[in-house]
Amino acid sequence: MDSQLNRSIFSRVKADWWTDYFDEYYLRSQGKFYEDAIVTSKEWDVLSSYPEIQQLLRRGDENSQGQMQNERKVEILDLNCGQGRHSILIANSKSSIQVHGHDQSQFLIDLARARSSHLSNVRFSVGDSCSVPADRNSYNMVMILGNSFGFYPTEMGDHNMLAEVYRVLQPGGVLLLECTDATFIRENYELINEKWRWLGQDENLIACYQRELSHDGRRLATREIIVATDKGIIKDTSIPVRLYDQSEFTEIFRNVGFVVSEDSFRKWPTTLLSGQYGMLKNRVTIKVCKPV
Ligand SMILES: C[S@@+](CC[C@H](N)C(=O)[O-])C[C@H]1O[C@@H](n2cnc3c(N)ncnc32)[C@H](O)[C@@H]1O
Q1: Closest residue by CA, ligand 1 atom 27
Q2: Which pLDDT tens digit goes with each residue over 13-24?
Q3: Does a structural domain hold residue 252?
Q4: Residues 6+ apart with CB under 8 A from 122
Q5: Overall domain count for the chain
Q6: Closest ligand 1 atom to 144 CA
């Protein structure tokens, strides 16, 4: 029994764990954050404050007023888009911008499609993040948001995902990535370790979390167990995420060919979320470009 209890979370990780983790229970356990429209809208205010992104959105406005040529239509890819919260927000606010959300979860993409059926400027596809169904140079901007990077078991997998982003971005296009602040997690990971909470108000579901930082600090494994008080354990998933700090991100981006500049990295305002948000409270935003 003790040896079971002491087993490393890393040893419990199943290959391709993401193929069955991102389902209705993911939305229930993470919904406090990922399903809160006010949080998403505040996030977008922060993300879109980069001058390049403001410029891109303005170009969308000019297009819709007929001042620009059609060939300069603004195209955005939301990679690992989940249930499409950012894609739908952007498409709703800018009818002139074409948004494409891509994610491996059929469940989340079905939800995204149902929620956006009234919009003609957003589409969704299901598939792996290393193979986006698009030609090279298709998008003005690619976004990887809401802690959606570092899931592959090797750094080569992460590299291949970024190489795919590079392929589909236009020269001069922007990659906007937003994820947990690795430096904060490495220094404070006990703060987010071993927690449990009720899910929803009148449901009898509980989510329990245990975390383990690898010895080299590169990977954080989270074990999430969902329990129904009347049924017992419903789901038990171990999730390993590669944490990249500023210098590790700079290296992987430059290896792929992106231009990293002095203003590429921004710390997320921690005041954005009041209360307990685990790995989502302290985040960084990174903006890099494909050379012209
Ligand atoms: C934490 S969720 C964030 C979703 C969304 N970006 C948001 O902010 O709401 C991570 C997403 O990455 C997707 N994902 C994980 N691994 C993937 C892969 N190999 N290929 C495509 N999508 C993947 C999951 O299905 C999930 O929707």
Answers
A1: 82
A2: 999 999 999 999
A3: yes
A4: 84, 87, 88, 90, 91, 98, 99, 100, 101, 116
A5: 1
A6: 6
